[in-house]
Amino acid sequence: MRPGPFSALPVEFVGSFPNPTVRLSPTLPEFIMLGRSNVGKSSLLNALFGRRLARVSDTPGRTALINVYRLAGFYLLDLPGYGFARVSHRERDRYQKLVRDLLRQRTTLTGVVWLLDLRRDPSPEDQEHADMLAERGLPVLAALTKADKLPYAQRQRRLRELIQALALPPEQVQLTSSTTGLGINELGESLLAVTAREGTA
Ligand code: GTP
Ligand code: MG
Hints:
Elements: E1 12-17, E2 30-35, H1 41-49, E3 66-70, E4 75-78, H2 89-105, E5 109-117, H3 124-136, E6 140-145, H4 152-166, E7 173-175, H5 184-200
Parallel strand pairs: 2-4, 2-5, 5-6, 6-7
Antiparallel strand pairs: 1-3, 3-4
The protein binds guanosine-5'-triphosphate and magnesium ion.
């Protein structure tokens, strides 16, 4: 596995939690990894860590648990993906409640890494999550994933289109590929910058 921006740092898997307001000790800045199922959340975490800690799967739609990783000065929370078609209504309701409660009630949240597939247009569910993020007013870093799947010119075009569609400042939108490492260091730096900024606010 190629080195990542946090390769040299210790990373600890804290645990898997069903409760969106679970208290983590010590209190540190927290970021969630949010995005539709299969968008590449766990792969991106592993690319940041420079090691395989998060489980990557080809079969989405697993239990709605929050997987928590602790780095030197902050936590990363891997959430289950939304938008997976083949789950029961009950599971979908449970998932929606988990994310809604987390975004509304989790006072310790510092920021969000919001993942979108570079090749797709934002779905209605992406838009619903965008609205919840706007409501909460958290700093958002959008990671456009799987950039390796497009040639350079198309990549740049999609980047411009998605910056428009998401109505986010360009500096908050990053092309990424967990496969080639594109944009992973930059994303790591952005996370550290938000941590430093929010920590001193
Ligand atoms: P859930 O946990 O099920 O919601 O999925 P996830 O968002 O964590 O996605 P995951 O990291 O498990 O990746 C899903 C699939 O996409 C896997 O087959 C990965 O190998 C693939 N994948 C993830 N990132 C990339 C990437 O940057 N490039 C390419 N080509 N494939 C990727
Ligand atoms: Mg995952």
